[in-house]
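Reopening this one. Same input as before:
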Amino acid sequence: MEWVAAPVPESAAGLELAGRPAWLAPLLARRGVEDAAGAERFLKPSLDQLHDPFLLAGMEEAVARLLDARDRKETVAIVGDYDVDGISATALLLAVFNACGIQAKPILPHRLREGYGFQAVHVERARAQGCGLIVTADCGSSSAEAVERALAAGMGVIITDHHLPGCELPAGTLHINPHQPCCTYPFRDLAAVGLAFKLALALAGRCGKPLDPAPLLRVACLGTIADLVPLHGENRVIAALGLKALAGARSHGLKALIEKSGMKPPFTAADVGFRIGPRINAAGRLHDPERALELLLSRDAGRAAALATELDGWNRERQATETRVVEEALRIFTARSPLPPVLVAWSESWHKGVVGVAAGRVAKDLHRPTVLLAVEGETATGSGRSVPGIELHGFLHAWKERMERFGGHAQAVGLTLRTEALEGMRREWEEAGGDWPAELLARRIEYELHLPPAAVSPDLLAHLAALEPFGQGNLRPVLRTGPLRVEGEPRAFGNGHLSGRARGEDGAAVNFVGWRWGERAGSLRGRFEVLACVEDDTYRGGPVLRLVDSRPASPGTSV
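Same output, byte for byte:
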């Protein structure tokens, strides 16, 4: 694994002159901060940094149509998605529509029976419930057939979606999506729940109904963080303020979920990404997403506690199922030499509810775009995840017409195709991937900080905390430090994890933890240096190094 120092943007010098520490200025510059005012905005997110929702193409018309539905006492169907983003967006819209006097009913697709996206079956479900208007949340930009069915049945359609548009929607559709060509909104990377938040603010404003933003932000931060959209711009504001608001959650559902997840304030993006998010996702991936929606909307403490326990059990089931898929996929790929540029595998024994997350783990481990599919008879349904620098959606779009379904983001896709086409498609993708520059597939780790062990201090931890929330577009900085020597023997715990204490040649002692590091314990012998993330040790207090990589320290190596 190659270690590479991150480049220093020119703007870092100006930030340092403006008073930012020499080690912090490059971190801010790499995150798009160009001057002192930008640093202030980045480090202190606030509501006044949000753009006017009516700058979104289609927003004016959508709000007018919703007000018309209210006045005509129409029932509105909210068709969401089964992941955290879609469920949180649906919950937010339900709450605000009801507050604005609009009767609304949720419709969530069942992943195993119906698959992804807005479909004709959801139109029929909406019509059966007497709905005159359909509003989608996190789906619909590629659903021309379902939209046509709804319009033909006399229903209005408002699409709110952040996926890349896959087709031209029928005339008469109201479409809110910052990625559509006609939209000039200043920020294009909102999650679906971010768009729901925008629609809620616009609608409530026109209704003359003041809204407390805190309850909305608590829900909006869940999908924003869990859907892995870039945490800069408005997403950073939503995530940061939402995480702060979570500590004061009054919702029985959120409180039960927080308690079951074992979370303690102050909450971080990692808490949502690795504790809350997976429990909500487990409902839609393996069972019924409506349970997760019911939990978020629950007004009964006992029912909320029962639902949180149910989701917790489903999440453990999801973890076991996902681990098996990852292990089997890794065996398939590591048996190939050389490793192909794009990794494609499928199996009749894989659960289609977990192949997306599994693909993400494989892509990270092997540093290759990865597509995993679950085969059910003549049909294969799967997901793909990419690596930095390779836009998987754009790459696979050339084969769209040969797939039954295809959609997603630049780095993550969902697809369905005929089982008989898998082998040929895999060969074509591998051949086309051969044109990628070799450096995009090289296994390398970029570090942003190079500091001596003595610098790993509570003060450094506090400065780094100001960069929270971390996520896509604002990754937790990787630190290079050493040389180190382990004191005593590292302690094994959990499923192959390690923790221990090391001392630098400057005399400073540092604590470290290595997740899934058991097989690499030998790399921590003798004189070595590490790449690690500096995190808060919630058990012992103070900073701890979460190991990313390690290697022997060369003679004379020092910081």
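So the earlier flakiness isn't reproducible anymore. For the record, The chain has a mean pLDDT of 94.
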